[in-house]
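sorry for the late reply, my laptop died twice this morning and i had to redo everyting from scratch. anyway the thing you sent over, i finally got around to it. pasting the sequence first so we're on the same page, its 782 residues, then the predicted structure underneath. double check i copied it right bc i was rushing
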Amino acid sequence: MRLLVGGLALALLLPALPAQAVDQLVTDPAAYVDPLVGSARDGTTWPGAVRPFGMISWSPTSTRGDQTSTGAANGYQYDVTRVRGFALTHVSGAGCNPGAAGDIPIMPYVGTVDTSPTADTKDAKYASDFSHADEIAKPGRYTVKLANGVKSDLAVTTRAGVGDFAFPTDGQPNLLFRTSNSLNGSEDAEITIDAANRKVTGSVLTGAFCGRRANGGTNNRKTYYRLYFTASFDQPVVATGTWKDGTITPGGTQTTGGEGYATGADRAGKGSGGYVSFTPGAKVKMRIGISYVSAQGAEDNLAAEIRPDATVNRIANDGYKDWKNELQNVRITGGSDAQRNTFYTALYHVLLQPNVFNDVDGKYLGSDQQIHELAPGQRAQYGTFSGWDQYRAHIQLLALLKPEIAGDFAQSMYQFAQQNKGIWDRWLHNNGPTHVMTGDPAAPTLATFAAMGVTNFDAEGAYDSLVHQATVQNADAENDGGCPGQCTGQRPALNTYLAKHYAPQDACHCWGGAAETLENSLADFSLAQWGSRLGKDTQDLADRGTWWKNTYDPAVGYQRARKADGTWQPGFTPSTDVGFAQGSSATYTWMVPQDVSGLGAVMGGDAVTRLDGFFHDAAGNWAVKGGSALRYDPTNEPGLHTPWLYNGLGVAWKTQATTREIVDTVYGTGPSGLPGNDDLGTLSAWYVFAAIGLFPQTPGRAELLVGSPLFPKVELKRSNGVRLTIEAPQTSDANQYVESLALNGKPRTESWLPESFITSGGRINVQMGAAPTSWGTAPIDH
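ok and here's the structure:
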């Protein structure tokens, strides 16, 4: 999803990297990770401490002088060097400002707390500047020295954290718990301070994903979770206090109060929290645990994951090892330090989500606001699903690397749907349905999981549930609440869609009729593929997979919004976004990966020339960095697959040239290393696939298209034991083109790899050269 505000492109020197010959296999991939990548240029990432798929993510909350905002989508942007705390939860790469979470910012403050921090509406007093020179971000650890003299050193496990706060010798040390100050505000919050036992507990009742989106309005300013926390200290608490709105209570130990979900002046000065004070010069170690279930759950999570004698160094070292072990599942040989940095940081961002959502005892908060337990055999309940984004690249990489997590994720989504009147929401934040974006992305997601060998979920139940939603109109299908952008229905105006065989622009109760038609066509194709594996009759779904043709206007040669009476929306230009969702007709016209030959046919044999014009300007120069509605946009999802369409059109060398150009010029190192919103790892996943030289052909299938491998050798280990090896020893900046390919020692002329390569493993050897070749026939359409 695209961020709605601009960003500042900045550069950062690469971190110190291990001395290692470039022709050797990378032995410590975590050393190449830079968590600051994407923190500028609207990548909307954050640099804080987190474990793979972690529940807790301890990272700064920045401020530009407005306590009801952060100046960043997810709490941190590289050009904002003032913070008002370190929050415990984050969403990586979500594209609205603010995005979500940012719960319980904890601010180390030096001085007397003599006014309400909530009354400091411009963050003039209870905040601090910092310099990037005093900041270190590594996998599993975040360290920064603030201008107020406090050094904060943070490390985490999956559900808990430990932080060292070293205060200066002069001034009163305090930790401020801004319990109500989540990024989007809160409905309520509460805090209790037990000075005698050196303990603070509390919670925030919140939600409101993308709460400021004008097109969501009040529809998305709603509560769907309460986050509990428990914190303890190794130093005596010498003073306490609480605040509510503009009133401070020195010596107070308990208070409540939320901020609401309004913005600016309508919210400023509202909220509650508390503080604890220590002796001057104190070095305070704080242990903290969180839970979405209960206060006791937070206590149990903390006790299970961080012992009382745990140190930041110990937890950080364990976290680094955890990341190293995960990243080692993809081992690369060769490449420059910059390429390795970009590659492993992208893989790091991919593995941040989905997020563990259950406590150590298996309990979790459902979408019905009730407490549930894991299903038999389920190892974790995972929350947060940026469906419209993730189903195009991220979920395939997740299934490829971690099929058991993909299965638990699928089961989690199914369970959330069962708790939500059978409705699969297209964008879940934690457990909360937010309705963001368009289409029905759960269908292609689970269908892809099934195709890629993911088995540990209730496939029959999930399939039947998704087919029911695709065939029986639900009560919300004609609800315009939140439209456009956050329309309530899973399959909006389904009966009209089934009758017309397209989504009418003037009667679809959706973001855009043409986009909805394309998304539904792909979703139905995916369901048909999955149903066939399950032995179902899928002819109707397969037919519906071709309905994309009903919004293709041959008179103009593009996808186009169409009215209920069958006429076309007037005023068409290829750059129009009328009928589309965060994209133009020029981009969406290519969104038919399930039928590339069919798309080529309706274009009258002109598809290759037209695709060339999508990636080049009128003078023939590359135009792959975005900025034009008529050309490829690497920052947003509807067109991410288009560089790979050349394979389906029989000119695979153009895929190789185009993907290599994007890899080399669009992605990079430092804060500006991502071209746009990472959207829960989606842009990062695209890069990982492109650098490997493979990409999923279409959702609902497991075939992989072949591109231009960046590294001489890649060894990929699936968590189920299957091994994949890609060898391209001659690859270089000059040698970008595939001359020949062998799969398990046998020559292969197709520019795609069969499903068995993923499910059973194998080795490909790719001979690379400096000139385009005729290698690679068109993939088979399914």
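Residues 199 and 232 are 4 Å apart (CA to CA).
thats about all i looked at so far, will dig more tmrw
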